[in-house]
Structure formats: structure tokens, C-alpha cells
User: What shape does this take?
Amino acid sequence: MIELKHVSTVYDDDFMALSGVNLKIGHGEFVSLVGPSGAGKSTLLRLLTRELSPRGGEVILDGVNLATLSSGEVPLLRRKIGTVYQDFKLLTNKNAFENVAFALEVCGVDEEEVNTDVPKVLNIVGLSDKAQNFPHQMSGGEKQRLAIARALIHRPRIILADEPTGNLDLMNTYDVVKLLMKINELGTTVILATHNREVVNVIGKRVVTMEKGKIIRDQVVNGKYII
Amino acid sequence: MKKSFKRIFSVGWTNFKRNRYISFGTTGVMVLVLVLFAGLMAVNFLSSQVVANLQDKVDISAYFKPDISEEDILGVRSELEALDNVKKVDYVSAAEALQEFKERHAGDATIQESLAELDFNPLQASLNIKANDPAQFASVVQFLEGNKFRSVIDKINFYENEKVIGRLQSISGGIQNWGFLMTMILAAIAVLVTFNTIRLTIYNQRQEIEIMKLVGGSNWHIKAPYLVEGGLYGAFAASVTAVIFYPALFFISPKIELLMPGVSLTSYFLSNIFQFLFLVFFIGVLLGVVSSLVAIRRFLRV
Assistant: This one.
């Protein structure tokens, strides 16, 4: 489903973020991508949403080489994926309902369906009573749950979570992890980039360890955070 | 399609309301720009009036030999009036010319006595000719000097007045050209000010635009509400401009009328009120939409 073949990425300042990365992720997997800051975890996720293009190699999703997508096809790719970020990336001018609804509207879903689905998803993440609140009126944990609701609403086949617990306290961290695991149980592929050892060890699924732009370890079953 | 337009307008309107400080500031700058445009329209109207007045003062006279009958002179007038470049032809008979001369020099005893001693009218009947454009006098004179009228016309005062006519022409041409140049420069500045203001407004929202792209929004889906927002700045600014401009005209117009009698800004802008409102509204909305369109482009490359 997701395949990276000899992928290398170089930033403008000649920093080599990824170097010859090979990785295969199957449908419905939960993969924890671990490693220190600068290891290349976020770069790998950004390749999957075509925020970045590789300098060398191929990034293949559902048999399609992402480098061949036209700029008009990129939004269609992103609609297949739900993304959760450390800094939430919520639309500050929109309330919680509108933030979630936006991800549905871009898919061309009609108003009626939006009005039915959004409250359901807000209920799943425990934000039913905050639907009219704006992001600045919410706590860090609530913002991250809202970001997850937005990532979930269009029933994507893949969820990419880039340090989603980085700005959260312990309680909220486990709430978010539990949500991601629940989403995975329903059949969605989840790729979680983190350097939170406890989180990775609690999840206990496949763990891919990165260092200096390379994959140095791939524990397919019952993985642990080992550096 | 209909639902999509409804969504675009609804989101655009919501953004306009929610960013009320930014909307207020941007609309304010656009009001200044549109007031400047309206002012330029007023200045253009005034300068066209000055040019028209100057051109109206320029004429030439063709004097007829004393033995030519009034009927023949009126015949020449009809032929002149049939020319495309002739605006107006007035016939002044010898008697009228004398009467006018006496009235003009009523206080000059020497002239009055000299005239009294004469037992005939020394003045000639003439046709006073005004052209649509002073540059066309030469062709009118050429027409009069043709074989057909050579025997009836004594002289034409064009050559004596040629220099003055030329100078008036260059003054009115200068007013028109400089007026046009200044209008273009000020209009360009106004467009740049609007563009930069809207660019700053959209720059403030660049992160939102980036997020929308990451969530899977197509360029059109993201861009359209911003274009509506830009159009709303223009529409509101146009309304405020009209509310400011017309009362200001009532205040300024009488003062200008003192300097230029017969020229009324108020009546000009009232008689063209619908055209003016449409133009200001059109310029405002167009500036807002196009500025938004240009400004948002670079933030959509995510």
C-alpha cells in the first residue's frame, strides 16, 4: 500500500534529510516511527502528502508513484489521508464544527451530510459541547482531539500523526494514543511519528527506528523504543 | 453548482465579519483610494470644462465685400454649416456690426464724432465661424478661399489670429495631456496601495491557506471565499465613498462655481449619478477581487 524505494531528500541548505530509505507499510498497520529530532520522521510523512518531493527514489501509494501526480491531483491524494500535527494546524478563524466540516466540504460532500457527520465525529473525540468554540477557546488536549476529528471525518485510509502528543500533558497524551489505536482497530493505517518512549512502548506494535535520515531498525511485531 | 456558490459567498461573508479589524482597515484604505478616483473624475470634468471654454473663445471671421447681398452671405453660411468640422456660424450684418461698434466705444467721443461725420457705414457684413476643433480652422479657411467664394469675400482674419489660436490649442492640449498623465499616475498609485493592503491581509492568513491545502482543499475551493472577501471590501468601500463624495460635492461645488462660472460639479455628478455609482462600485469590486487573486497565488504553492 505504501512503499518507499531508495528515497533520498535534500533540503535547500543541502541538508540530507533522508538517505536511501526503503520501507513498506501494509493496509491496516499501526507503525510507530521513532528516532531523535532531525532523524527524518517528519520528512518521511511530508513525502507521503506530497508536501515534499524526493530528490531520488520513489514514493508509491496504492501503486501510484507520487512524483507523477499533477498539481491538480495532489488535493485528491491528501483527501485519502488524514493528518495530525504537533502544532494542531487548526483554522483559527473557524470554530470546531467548521474546522471539521472543512475537511468534508473539500471532498464535495453536501451540507446535509456535513451536518450529520460532524457532530458524530465530535462526539467520538469528546468535543460535542465545544462545537461552537474557536481554537483559542480550547485547551491543548481539546485542540489535538479536534485535529484528530478533522483527520477522521472523511474516513481516510491512512492517518499520519506527526508528534501529536508533543504539546500535551500525560492524561491528554494517553487520550490521543487511545483514539489513534481505536481508529487503527477500525481498519485505518496509522503512522505515528514520535520520540515519546512511553507512548511507543504502550502501543506495542510495529516500530521503525530512524537516525540521521536512515532506517536503522524495523521491529515488525511488538516493537519497543530502543535507541 | 448553486450550493457551491452559496457556500463560497457564505464563507466569504463570515470571514469578512470575523476579521472585523482587518476588514475595517482594508475597507478604509479602499475608501481613500476610491475617493481619490472620484476626485480624479471631478478634476477631469473641470479640466474638460476649462478646455471647452478656451476652445469656445476661438473663432474666425470672414468679411464680405460691401456689394454682396445678404442672401448671398446666408448662402455661404448654409454651405459652411454643412461642413463636418464647423460647429457654429453666426451672421453679423454691416448695420449690426456698426451698432455693436458704437456701443463698444460709447465713451470715446473722438470715435463717435468720426462716425457721425461719415455718411456711410464703413463696416462690413461678416460670418463668425466656430470650429469643432481649432485645428480645423485651416481647412475651413481653405474652403472659403476656394474659387467659389473668392469673389465675394474681402478678407478672413484667420492669419492675424493664427498664433493665438495655436497657443490656445497647445494650452488646452497640455491640460488634457498632463491631466491624463496625472490621472494615470495617481490611479497606478491607488491600485498599488490597494493591492499591497489586500496582500498584507492575505499574508496574515497564509497559515490558514497552507492548512487548507494540507487538508486537501483544491486551489479554487480555498481561493474563492478570499475573492468574495476582496469583492466585499470593494463593495463596502464604494458605498462609503458615495456617502462621503456627494455631500462633499455640495460643499465644494459652489466654491468652484465662483472661480468658473457656469460649471457645476454637483449638477454634473447628480445627472450622472447611476453611471458614477456603477463605476465606483465596479472599480472597487474589481480592485478587491483582482488584488486578492494575485496576492493569494503564492500561498497556494504548498
